[in-house]
Design a protein that fits this description.
Elements (H helix, E strand, L loop, with lengths): L1 E6 L2 E4 L4 E9 L5 E8 L5 E7 L7 E2 L7 E6 L4 E6 L8 E10 L10 E4 L3 E6 L1
Parallel strand pairs: 2-11
Antiparallel strand pairs: 1-3, 3-8, 4-5, 4-9, 5-6, 7-8, 9-10, 9-11
Amino acid sequence: QVQLVESGGGLVQAGGSLRLSCAASGRSFSARTMGWFREALGKGREFVAAISWSASRPIYADSVKGRFTISRDNAKNTVYLQMNSLKPDDTAVYYCAADAPYHAITTIGSEYDSWGQGTQVTVSS
């Protein structure tokens, strides 16, 4: 497992942007698929985006496609989520997650074995 710490959340107006960061410590970051999930008040956890260990195949939820971009910097053991054109429906706690080394990219939260503590994103209308 790895330890994950998210940062970059906050309050933003609709149409604005935020960039979330997730710093990882532990072994084999560069070999792990990394994902972002979110949980809005009263709703279950929702997949947002994931990037494979090779960074060649990012995938996105339909609700964020074209607005959010996931990226990673293996030299810094960090994964990012750039969020543009934010909407009130994007309001949620955002969680970073890491899969076991060399697993295939996945949207299924239960397949990730390490999670951060979450960072709140609030989008006002």
